[in-house]
Design goal:
Its cofactor is FAD. The chain is an alpha+beta fold. It is built from eleven helices and ten strands. The site of flavin-adenine dinucleotide has 21 residues, from β1 and α11.
Length: 379
């Protein structure tokens, strides 16, 4: 068994790393503070054909796998988590169109999505449908060859700069659950923005609450089989972008801490020379490696067509907690200055905290993991 990346994977990772260092890191602090959308970053990513990294080449994508996606997202997240989440969610919407959409939908949407000229956002969660999406209240009723949608969506990341929201709505009775939810591509212009929250982190890309009142959507915008939208999500694989974002923040926190503790002096020595600090930095590195290995394992299994339920849950729990723990420790080891915006570690902590909740709270993933472990035991 080998743990090395291929030459092509290394080349992709290095190219995105260089991009992050030159195009994202110099402005990350300002983008966060000013709550400014990083459009120039997305333009550049599109120019380099990275916005469609996992989409097939026939649609203008790069046809890469999930390992490559995880590598790219880690690098982007080292620079600014919001950039990584926007791309990750966009590619998640594109994956649904690619895998479950009609030939016509693929032709219409995927080339534009690959180039980021059409940007997708995810409208799954609602006020009372957080961890349990089956509680959603948004409905879609058929009227001839159209659907009429009513309801709201909450936490639609990148809504303000997206073109379409992949919107989940109930199309069947409760007794048919979970086969009573369908997915529709609804233009963002058809929604009304209700609340744009002030959040702890992820400041440069907003995740508002939006409403739909009597919005008519043609049948041609129903993606996948009627009633199967929610169930189909269980098959999606681009979700590996969430743990990959965790790996990125955990690594950024480690790198900043190594640099800072190696230059800061107290008691006539670098603070990196204190044994307690060295052990802590060693543990931070261990968390990064564990998180990355678990994330790449989950991605690799998905690329090879194996069931990765157990592996994905482990990666999500481990990598997102690693991000929180490393960011927290980085702040501690930066002392008082780490508590200011003069360094990035306070942003890492604010951004990291989102990841143990977004993509489903870690408690839910612990349930899934435990179920898989017991199932395996019973086999
Ligand atoms: C900034 C941001 C961006 C987001 N972006 C998107 C997006 O683009 N699209 C989208 O559809 N959604 C998005 N979400 C929504 C996100 O997926 C939900 O917040 C998440 O699924 C949890 O739902 P909730 O917030 O309602 O928490 P709740 O379901 O109310 O849970 C609250 C807490 O209860 C605990 N809990 C929940 N379930 C269990 C359990 N089974 N066992 C033990 N404890 C449990 C956990 O600690 C959990 O954090 C985003 C959220 C945020 C904050």
């Amino acid at each position: 068994m080998r743990f090395d990346l291929t030459e092509d994977q290394r080349a992709l990772r290095d190219a995105v790393r260089e991009f992050t260092e030159t195009e994202i890191e110099p402005q990350a602090r300002d983008l966060d503070r000013e709550e400014e959308y990083p459009s120039d970053v997305f333009d550049e990513l599109s120019e380099r054909r990275l916005t469609g990294v996992t989409l097939p080449e026939e649609y203008g994508g790069r046809g890469e796998g999930l390992v490559e996606l995880a590598l790219m997202i880690e690098e982007l997240s080292v620079g600014l988590m919001s950039v990584a989440s926007t791309i990750g969610l966009h590619l998640g919407v594109a994956e649904v169109v690619e895998r479950f959409g009609t030939g016509r939908q693929r032709e219409e949407f995927l080339p534009e999505m690959a180039s980021f000229d059409t940007v997708g956002a995810l409208g799954l969660s609602e006020a009372d449908a957080g961890s349990n999406k089956l509680e959603m209240e948004t409905t879609a009723e058929r009227d001839g060859d159209e659907w009429v949608l009513d309801g709201h969506k909450q936490w639609v990341t990148n809504f303000l700069d997206a073109d379409y929201v992949l919107t989940y709505a109930k199309t069947g009775p409760e007794e048919d659950a979970p086969h009573n939810i369908s997915a529709f591509l609804v233009p963002t212009a058809d929604f009304e923005v209700e609340t744009v929250w002030e959040t702890l982190g992820a400041n440069s890309v907003k995740s508002p609450r939006v409403t739909l009142s009597n919005v008519r959507v043609p049948d041609a915008r129903l993606v996948g089989e009627e009633g199967e939208g929610y169930v189909q999500r269980g098959d999606l694989q681009t979700g590996v972008n969430v743990p990959a974002r965790g790996v990125g923040i955990a690594r950024a926190a480690l790198e900043d801490t190594v640099a800072y503790t190696s230059s800061r002096e107290q008691y006539d020595q670098h603070i990196s020379d204190f044994q307690g600090v060295r052990w802590e930095v060693g543990e931070m590195a261990e968390r990064v490696d564990t998180a990355r290995l678990l994330t790449l394992r989950a991605a690799d299994r998905a690329d090879r067509g194996y069931d990765g339920t157990r592996e994905f849950s482990m990666a999500k729990i481990s990598a997102t907690q690693a991000a929180v723990d490393n960011a927290n420790e980085a702040m501690q080891l930066h002392g008082g200055i780490g508590y200011t915006t003069e360094h990035d570690v306070e942003r890492y902590l604010r951004d990291a905290k989102l990841l143990t909740v977004a993509g489903g709270p870690n408690e839910g993933h612990k349930n899934t993991l435990a179920e898989a472990v017991f199932e395996q035991h019973d086999d």
